[in-house]
Amino acid sequence: MLIRDVPIKGQVVFAPLAGISDRVYRLICKRQGAAIVFSEMISAEGLIRNDEKTRRYINFKEEERPIGIQLFGANPESMGEAARIIESFEPDFLDINIGCPVKKVVKKGAGSALLKDPAKLVKVVRSVVDSVKIPVFAKIRSGWDERDINAVQVSRSLEDCGIAAITVHPRTQSQMFRGRADWSIIRAVKKAVSIPVIGNGDINTPRDAKQMIEETNCELVMIGRSSYGNPWIFNQTESYLTSNIESSPVSPKQRIGMCLEHLQMAVAEYGESIGVREMRKHIAWYLKGLPFCSGMRAKVVRISEFETMKQILLEYFEELKRIYQDEYPKDNTDSIKIYA
Predict the structure, then answer these.
(1) pLDDT higher than 70, residue 327
(2) Among candidates 154, 168, 153, which has minimal Cα distance to 212?
(3) Which residues are catalytic?
């Protein structure tokens, strides 16, 4: 499909996730089949103040395309100025965050707080759309709370403002990430607008993605938390959507191998100290469900050196080979390739 003039190869996209969708993990998810990747959300105010850390969030590699850079803020002028800065980096899309439920964002009037003030929301969105030439997306929630479900009305306003595509996470701000996502809201939004709709929420398996598309008619599905330690979910889901065939389970060798690759990429990107610290949470997710994973988690949270972390993971893999020797053939449990 095309969104404006940008070709999208696939139906499964990687969500913008604070502290997760950095340059390293975006690249991994792209290599594992994500059709679009999005940056972590970027503060408009920090960007226009020329904050160095904020600007670093915009950097991306050509291999990540198509990529969207997500922006949040509540001041129309600041959002417009920040959008122009982002466009100068030449991403494929800009994405406005109208869905973050976190208090430190909401108390500034940004994120899902904009759902409570449709007039202000329109001013913010128009400022961004009028400031750039690249397609602008918006990511919304179903509403502020169960008494104020306004996703359909908001989506119509967004389309009128020139938004190119809408992502709908059908939980309210008050729900945060609790309870079930109400996919009927995605379906209602799709009926109400003519632009592409991306469905998000409670996609834990490829079957969930197919069910969401069938129930809502959304063009794309967005996967976020289900990708933690599981970047294979993008290829697995694309394969299931196109062939209806479920992929084989990811082997321990694949998990440890990807974990080591991710570790090396993080250290190359951020340096040893920051890279290893950032990897602690990812390693815990990669190992989730494997034997003795709780003991491994307790080990890795204390490690700050690359070589030590690598050696512990390799020793753990040797232990897994002994545990799984009857379950996995030799070609799935031999030595792990350490990627450059």
Answers:
(1) no
(2) 168
(3) 100
